[in-house]
Write a structure and sequence with these properties.
Layout: H1 7-44
Length: 48
Amino acid sequence: MLNKPNRNDVDDGVQDIQNDVNRLADSLEDVLKSLGKRCERRSRDGET
């Protein structure tokens, strides 16, 4: 029979997921900023 998870295990799992999502969001933000800067340079330099 399956054991019912206890509240602390569930809370720890939720916290792990939130931490992962925050790290992914930070990484995505860094990538988008980098891409934006790259596009600005290309636009400024007349590249397409």
